[in-house]
Design a protein that fits this description.
Elements (H helix, E strand, L loop, with lengths): L1 E7 L2 E8 L2 E6 L10 H14 L16 H11 L7 E2 H8 L3 H9 L12 E2 L13 H10 L8
Parallel strand pairs: 4-5
Antiparallel strand pairs: 1-2, 2-3
Length: about 150
């Protein structure tokens, strides 16, 4: 398993590769085991995202989880840059309870790249698993120009 970490405007971010795909990412510093071309590409894409030069990630991903977790991650991945959906909208789309969708969003192993920050509750922001929680979610939504939805 290879891992890297690097600074972003929202904190230290790590990316983990297993086999030929990214399997984990998040706001934490891990001891870098080794870098790979895929991890370097992930870093370049994430930094381009924060620089305002990239809106869609193009990386090999593997979500280790249940079929339901993978289904929710697939739906989240389809939410366009700068747009949001609610847990309820996703739940209706896949025929599942909104609370289950919320749990799957919270268990997203590859946040940012799989944009769980673009999923809101019906009455507000909902949660977020990044280091600074909802504050990081707000910063990402502001970065994408979706902050007007929060007012």
């Amino acid at each position: 398993m290879a891992q890297i970490y690097f600074d972003t405007p929202t904190g230290v971010f790590s990316v983990t590769q297993e086999g030929d795909a990214i399997v984990r990412a998040g706001w934490n510093s891990v001891q870098a085991i080794e870098s790979t071309p895929l991890l370097e590409e992930a870093k370049a894409q994430i930094l381009a995202y924060f620089a305002g030069e990239l809106e869609v990630f193009d990386l090999a991903l593997k979500v280790n989880g249940s079929d339901f977790q993978r289904q929710v991650c697939e739906v989240m991945s389809a939410i366009p840059f700068g747009e949001t959906r609610t847990y309820g909208e996703i739940a209706q789309e896949i025929g599942a309870p909104a609370q289950a969708v919320g749990g799957a969003c919270g268990g997203n192993p590859i946040p940012l790249i799989i944009p769980c920050h673009r999923v809101l509750s019906a009455s507000g922001l909902g949660g977020f698993s990044g280091t600074y929680g909802v504050e990081t979610k707000v910063e990402l939504l502001k970065h994408e120009g979706a902050a007007s939805l929060l007012i």
